[in-house]
Structure formats: structure tokens, C-alpha cells
Write a structure and sequence with these properties.
- It is a single chain.
- By secondary structure, this protein is of the alpha/beta class.
- The protein has one domain (7-184): Metal-dependent hydrolases (TIM Barrel), CATH 3.20.20.140.
- The protein has 11 helices and 4 strands.
- It has helices spanning 10-19, 33-39, 41-44, 49-63, 66-69, 88-96, 98-102, 112-119, 130-140, 156-164, 170-184; strands spanning 23-25, 75-77, 120-123, 145-146.
- Helix 9 links the parallel strand 3 and strand 4.
- The protein is globular, with a radius of gyration of 17 Å.
Length: 188
């Protein structure tokens, strides 16, 4: 596989930013042969490998400086951000810890969490418990969460029920169900 921080994808990132069209980053089976050959699909598949390979793709994009180069670029990630919201404090550790900064070439001007919160939207796809959804909303803000069901792999009705069961005001749920997507996609 290839990652979006590869220079050959710069024209796509530039055009998406210019046209104000978000890029949807969706997982597939990781290309890391060691993962696939030892435990196969159990490790490389949707429950684990998809998540961390997609999170790696996003972290590479953040650390490459892409969002400094394209500050209005928007990325949509499914599955509640593929674990990144839950790792946000550890991600920022990269930026603020001297020995980490000295051991790598840092190309970014802000903490990783700032890019995650300003340039990334996350979808509700994935069979997550309410506590995980609430945690993602708490970390990212309800303005950054989009309804997503991962249909046909998951039942859309179950996702609707999970959002309806969230202990949030109806206005917040309406943002998640449709208003955030309308704003992101510039739909009137």
C-alpha cells in the first residue's frame, strides 16, 4: 500500500483543499506482510489491522506537514477516527517532548491534536459501545462527528439507535445525524 504523505498525492490534496472537497480515508487490509502471514485476517482484518493501518496513514499525513501546506484540507475517517482520538495525549507527546523531537524530523508547527481537531471529521461507523462514541465526541467535539453506518457491512438501523440512545441534547444528535455533513459538504 501507499500512504497519502507520498509526494505523488500532493496534487490530489491541493485540489481537494482548493475545491473544498473532503477526502474520505477508509481502511483496507494492511500491506505489511508480517502481519498478514502470521495471523492472517484475524490480525490484519477490520477488527484490528484496518484500524491501525488507517491511523498510521493519518499520522503520517499529519507529521508530514500536509496540513500546514494545505490548512483547509479536510479528511473524514470512519470508525470513530480509527483510534486516534483516544491516543490524542500520546500523539501530542511526540510534539512536546524534547528527546522525541530531537530523534525525528518534525515538519509540523502545531501539536498533532490541533490538526486532528481542525482538519479531521470522524464517522460513527463501527460497532462501538455508547461509551466509546461519547468519548470520541468529548475529545473531538460534536461538530466533528458525522453519522456513518458502514453499510452494507453493518446495519444502519443499529447506528441510528446508538446515536438516539446517546445522553445528548437533540440539537447535538441532529448535528451528528446530518447538519455536520451538510456544512462539511456545503449542502444548502
Amino acid at each position: 500500500g501507499e500512504y497519502l504523505d507520498d509526494e505523488k498525492f500532493s496534487p490530489i490534496l491541493e485540489r481537494a483543499e482548493r475545491l473544498r472537497i473532503p477526502i474520505f480515508l477508509h481502511p483496507t487490509v494492511p500491506q505489511i506482510k508480517e502481519i498478514r502471514k502470521t495471523y492472517g485476517y484475524a490480525l490484519a482484518g477490520p477488527a484490528f489491522g484496518f484500524t491501525f493501518d488507517t491511523a498510521l496513514c493519518m499520522m503520517r499525513l499529519i507529521l508530514s506537514g500536509a496540513f500546514d501546506k494545505y490548512p483547509n484540507l479536510k479528511i473524514v475517517m470512519g470508525h470513530l477516527g480509527e483510534s486516534l482520538p483516544y491516543l490524542i495525549n500520546r500523539l501530542d507527546f511526540l510534539f512536546v517532548t524534547r528527546w522525541v523531537r530531537e530523534s525525528m524530523e518534525i515538519k509540523i508547527s502545531k501539536k498533532p491534536s490541533e490538526y486532528l481537531k481542525n482538519n479531521v471529521f470522524i464517522g460513527t461507523s463501527g460497532d462501538f459501545p455508547l461509551s466509546s462514541i461519547l468519548c470520541a465526541i468529548d475529545i473531538m467535539g460534536s461538530d466533528r462527528v458525522l453519522f456513518a453506518s458502514d453499510y452494507p457491512y453493518e446495519d444502519s438501523q443499529e447506528t441510528i439507535k446508538r446515536i438516539a440512545a446517546l445522553p445528548l441534547p437533540e440539537k447535538e444528535k441532529e448535528k451528528i445525524y446530518c447538519l455536520n455533513a451538510k456544512l462539511l459538504l456545503n449542502i444548502k
